[in-house]
Amino acid sequence: MDGLYRCTGEFEWRSDARTSSGVGFPIMTAAKRIRSSVGVLLRPKKRFPFQTSQAWHERWVRPDDLCNSRKLKSEDRFANVKRPRNLWKISPETLVLCAALSSGAMEMEELTTRRTFLRQSVIAAAAAAVARPAYSKMLAAQAARVPILNPETLAPFVDPLPRPVVARAQGMREIPGKHGERAPFFRISMRATTTKLHRDLPPTKQWSYGGVVPGVMFDTESHQGLLVEWANDLPTQHFLPIDHSVHGAGRNVPQVRSVVHLHGGKTPSESDGYPEEWYVPGESRTYYYPNEQDPALLWYHDHAMGITRLNIYAGLFGLHVIRDHTERQLNLPDGEYEIPLVLFDRHLQQDGQLSYPVSRDPEHPWISEVRGEVPLINGKIFPYLDVEPRRYRIRLLNASNGRSFRLSFSRDVEVQQIGSDQGLLPAPVSSKYVVLAPAERADLIIDFATLRGARILLEDEAFPALMEFRVSRPKVSDPSSLPSSLRPVPRISESSAVKTRWLTLDEITNGGKGASLGMLLNKTPWHMPISEKPALGTTEIWEFANLTEDVHPIHLHLVRFQILDRRSFDAFHYSTTGILHYTDSAAPPDPEEMGWKDTVRVNGRSVTRIIVPFMGYPGLYVWHCHNLEHEDNEMMRPYAVVAPGIVPEEVQPKGG
Ligand code: C2O
Ligand code: CU
After folding, report:
1. From the CA of 348, how far away is ligand 2's center (Å)?
2. Which residue's CA is the nearest one to ligand 1's atom 3?
3. At a CB cut-off of 8 Å and minimum separation 6, what does 143 contact?
């Protein structure tokens, strides 16, 4: 129980040793929590003898009964934390910590500023590294050999922001099965590459689509299909730690496997990149993307069973923009005034190489959360961009494994959000910050006209600055516009749904040890028979009942949907009795969530309802949590869109 403990938004301390390996790792994960919740840091004064036990697990207690700490009782400090009936479900670690606090074996430090916090956590993290007795050999070796890079040691804003490299078609090819119809053909090679992430770092080895990370960008037109040959030219050895105990990643399958999925694409099943249809170095697959869908910023990424988190972390993701005439007529900023920003985070070693955190157990290196200390934008650390004093369109993607961003601009600059995952909103929504869970997108208009000569920072709650916009001084003319209405997004009426599905989001922990073993959807592992079989052309309501404390970004392949509402419920009562008690009234989605979505944040202990028209193509697809660590460890399920005339029971995945 030595080490650094962090406090989550729900007022629970956990040992970071369970969820990370690197010394520097806890720093940012904890920093992220500061503003949103409590902001305390626990530092062990001495070792203490408390044991956790199975009996303590899953028990609900009043923290006040357990903890003598004045700070823990303070009501107003936790005023923003939702507590059902003043009870928390707390883990064994929390109990131990509370006990430790009250016995004086630990001290609790208040964090006033991020700076103090960082200083403290560096000390605590260093102490933790020394104190951990059962550090696995592998990790110890890793840690000794290559210290983790602290991004604060890097000079900010010395590298220009790279623009995505646009993919070029290699002529036209016949679309398989479409008798003579032709489409632009692209061949994209997945291959290892080395790039400098920052001026002062040695080049970093990554895996790429087309030699760049993020991968080459497809700049496409709605209703103009394209053929892509995805060639696996990767090495045959993985350079990140595979957990062979994770489903589909056993020692009986090749280490390096890949399959590409177009996230947000309305794609026929055979081109959708089913996780089990991976292939190995030396092989390729040609997929057809009809692009029969509205303009939006999509992205493509790896989806190989059991190692998606590692392949994406290695660099296998890229953008796919769809445009059309109607959107062009809005006269939004375009060309050089349209900036795609792909945000992600990594742990880096001090030599600049990627480091993927692992648990202390070499047999089960999987961990449930990965949040790197180093933020990257379009593949650079703390880049800058020269801009003119005029309107820009900024198209954001969160491509992180597990980090959510809460972005804002310095000087309180207000932006207009004009779009989300699946294209434009009905009307611009002005806001001072933008929340993006993994896989979510946001389309923003920012006007630098009144900021001539200024330096504007893109900030996040975990990082003081992600990048800098340098606004030039001379006045420029701005022919672009920001219309007050963008496109109609008619709300789907609930009465059009033919079916409502209740689907739980669950976490499995190993009892006394309290460590997360994985997550589940509807308590059903991946390999079980398909349970969700919507009929093609019908509309359904899916109710995600999150029994865990964490936010899970849930994504469905093939379709776009609308968020109906979110409502907190008593998850403990539900888990133990099966009886559903809502603890407040249903809240409508935020204004910027009123467009079409393909990924929805399902908050802890709440029911989030979405309404989904199953349009497009029949066949096999998946739905899953887009926290990639969760997705790889059972928080993914197949689903089948069933064509008229087919008996749903007959649809099963090939392996199942
Ligand atoms: Cu972006 Cu199935 O994923
Ligand atoms: Cu999840």
Report:
1. 24
2. 263
3. 21, 22, 23, 129, 135
pTM tops 0.85, yes or no: no
**Per-residue confidence band for 511, with pLDDT thresholds at 50, 70 and 90:** low
C-alpha distances in angstroms, 98 versus 83, 90, 359, 395, 416?
Answer: 18, 10, 24, 44, 44
Residue bearing the CA closest to ligand 1, atom 1: 263
**Which residues have C-beta atoms less than 6 Å from ligand 1?**
261, 263, 301, 303, 439, 555, 557, 622, 624, 626
542-572 residue pLDDT tens: 999 999 999 999 999 999 999 999 999 999 8
Tokens 């692009």 appear where? 291
Q: What is the 632 CA–ligand 2 centroid distance (Å)? A: 10
Please give the distance of CA 248 from its chain centroid, rounded to a whole number.
Answer: 21
Ligand 1 closest atom vs CA 622:
2
In ligand 1, the atom with minimum distance to the C-alpha of 301 is 1
Question: What secondary structure letter does DSSP report for 462?
Answer: S
3-class secondary structure, 627? coil
CA pair distance 463, 465, nearest whole angstrom: 5
Q: Please tell me what DSSP assigns to residue 272.
A: S
Burial category of 144 from C-beta neighbours within 10 Å (exposed 0-12, middle 13-18, buried 19 and up): exposed
Spatial strand order in the sheet of 606-613: 516-521, 497-509, 539-546, 606-613, 562-568
Q: How far is the CA of 275 from the centre of ligand 1 (A)?
A: 10
DSSP 311: H
d(CA 609, CA 534): 16
What is the dihedral sign for C-alpha 94, 97, 102, 108?
A: negative
